[in-house]
Design brief:
There is one protein chain. The protein has 385 residues and is an alpha/beta fold. It has 13 helices and 17 strands. It has helices spanning 3-13, 46-49, 58-70, 81-92, 105-120, 137-141, 146-149, 166-172, 196-209, 279-292, 295-313, 337-347, 370-384, and strands at residues 25-29, 32-35, 40-43, 99-102, 124-128, 159-162, 177-182, 185-186, 192-193, 212-216, 240-243, 254-258, 318-324, 327-332, 350-351, 353-354, 359-362. The two termini are 36 Å apart. Bound molecules: pyridoxal-5'-phosphate (PLP).
Length: 385
């Protein structure tokens, strides 16, 4: 089928909820993608932080194939080894409590919000501006962005949105607060690193009032910022952590990880999902963690991240550059980010993402090397020249 055929099918048969770029990718390997005509692209977008270990990583493909040949689905009324092994691995590498699986980031956050509410038996959920936690009603209610919330009002009651500052958080949380939910590095709004003082203030005020501190690491976790979990660079440990995106190597999976205090907060029947924790996606998750939970890889993420941030800052027309590890955004002083991203795709065969009119986001695979970083810089440099 030609691109025109695909566009006609989309127009006639898909609810128009996405603005697609004019390309069909048919194959991927590592940091590279190929379109239907055989053109090669360098992927610095990774399906929005999903393909963190590159496309079709052989270990993930093998794990999926091996598990799919034995058992694809059995459901949560029975035992299944891959999910139990992945839960152990996720908990032991982070908060030390227990895991509840979901199918996506938004669902992992729904689980976190429900668990925090149950623990306090009521209470408000405090989130911050520029935050993004997903599109289902609970997570959307914690996503204070007018364009995403307004068409779907009324939202879930009991959500409060404040500025992402230490003072605002300290003032907003009291004994009626069930939880504060934050991304340590805010991704969707354009890669804003929350200061350690903001996270510390949230920790202190949650402790003072018996509220739950939730870190949404759906985008910034799993090595993206150069440590396995983003919170590990902040000195602040949350009560609950959510993950998704990169975890399944491309398969849909999300997870809520608890600390000790809330490990037994859900009782049987409180929460669940038909597909969550399925053997194929969990086998993929174990293979992904084998690759990412590696200090040499994480050190390279930190090093290449710093290298890219400094290099991008030298380009003409670039203003602020933000980020941590390989989660980077830069501002174009004259705007035109969506246009730059389109030209990157069509002229330079470089896959990027714009988070707004002035902001370009780089989310390369964590397995890139220095030569691929330089290659991407050259392509961006030509576009900005
Ligand atoms: C920080 C964060 N939380 C939650 C989500 C929602 O994840 P999903 O699209 O898998 O529901 C996203 C997606 O971009 C995200 O970046």
């Amino acid at each position: 089928m030609t691109l025109t055929d695909l566009q006609a099918l989309e127009r006639d048969h898909l609810v128009p909820a996405y603005a697609r770029m004019p390309v069909e990718f048919v194959r991927g390997s590592g940091a590279l993608l190929w379109d239907a005509e055989g053109n090669e692209y360098l992927d610095f977008q990774t399906g929005l932080a999903v393909n963190s270990i590159g496309h079709c990583h052989p270990a993930v493909v093998a794990a999926i194939r091996e598990q799919a040949e034995r058992l694809i689905h059995v459901g949560n009324l029975f035992y299944s080894e891959p999910g139990l092994r992945l839960a152990k691995r996720l908990a032991e590498s982070s908060l030390g409590g227990k895991v509840h699986f979901a199918n996506s980031g938004t669902e992992a956050n729904e689980a976190a919000i429900k668990l925090a509410r149950k623990a306090k038996q009521q209470g408000t959920i405090v989130s911050v501006h520029r935050g993004f936690h997903g599109r289902t009603y609970g997570s959307l209610s914690a996503t204070p962005q007018e364009s995403k919330q307004a068409p779907f009002a009324p939202l879930v009651p009991g959500f409060v949105a404040i500025e992402p500052t230490a003072e605002a958080i300290a003032a907003a949380v009291d004994e009626r607060t069930a939880a504060v939910i934050l991304e340590p590095v805010q991704g969707e709004s354009g890669v804003y690193v929350l200061g350690d003082e903001v996270l510390r203030a949230a920790r202190e005020v949650c402790d003072a009032h018996g509220a739950t501190l939730i870190f949404d690491e759906v985008q910034c976790g799993l090595g993206r910022t150069g440590t396995l979990w983003a919170y590990q660079q902040t000195g602040v440990v949350p009560d609950l952590l959510t993950t998704a995106k990169a975890l399944g190597g491309g398969l849909p999976i999300g997870a809520l990880v608890t600390g000790e205090r809330l490990a037994d907060g859900f009782a049987a029947g409180d929460h669940g999902s038909t597909f969550a924790g399925g053997p194929v996606q969990c086998a993929a998750g174990l293979a992904v963690l084998d690759v990412i939970d590696d200090e040499a890889l994480l050190a390279r993420v930190r090093e290449l991240g710093e290298y890219l941030r400094h290099a991008v800052a030298e380009f003409p027309g670039v203003g602020e550059v933000r980020g941590r590890g390989l989660m980077i955004a830069f501002e174009l002083v004259d705007g035109g980010a969506p246009d730059l991203v389109t030209r990157a795709l069509t002229q330079e065969r470089l896959v990027l993402n714009a988070t707004g009119p002035t902001t370009v986001r780089l989310l390369p695979p964590l397995i890139i090397d220095r030569a691929q970083a330089d290659d991407a810089l050259q392509r961006v440099g030509r576009l900005l020249a």
